[in-house]
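WARN no homologs supplied; continuing
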Amino acid sequence: MIKILVVDDEPHITELIQFNLELNDYSVEIAGNGKEAIEKAKAGAFDLIILDVMLPFVDGFGVLKILKKDEKYKDVPILMLTAKSSETDKVLGLETGADDYLTKPFSIKELMARVNVLLRRVRKVEKTNKDSISINNLTIDSVSHTVKVNGNEIDLTLKEFEILLILCQNEGNVVKRDDLLDKVWGYEYFGDSRAIDVHIRHIRKKIEDYDKDYDYIETIRGIGYKIR
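OK structure emitted
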């Protein structure tokens, strides 16, 4: 059974989320503060985490940083759930490793759509059987879920891996930003489409650490990106 950790200090919100997740046959645990969230995550194994930002003891960004450094949670999707809606907060969450961002107040229908898509995306990556792709000094293998540049394995988040895989599968062709959003998020994205730009920047930086001589990802202004 899929296990989900819901982290929020407002009981009426956690009860509402838990009720609807359990209606869909998900197993749910609740944490009311950042410290408890870290303890429960370390002690258990969750397939997805719904994480509020404004938490006692350790805020959501702090929890996110700790979990994304843990090998067990490196590829576990994390949905940030918060009353903060500024662009700065959204970018910070994405840059820290969040997979999606939902602002309060939210509809349960939208929350469930995001949860289901994040879980489907994880299963899709786990089950893929496509061969590895090599471009210049970069090799991406969707079976082992690894990316190597000049023989060095680089550490990508699940969403970064999916974006790079789609670009590599369309080598030489432009992939529109909206198409990337649709394929990676799997539904009509409700947030800021600049989330793609944040992830592309991270991918470029990680590749450049091992290959500074070749610019793999080309920006096609106003349209999207392509692998050269």
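Residues 31 and 39 are 9 Å apart (CA to CA).
OK
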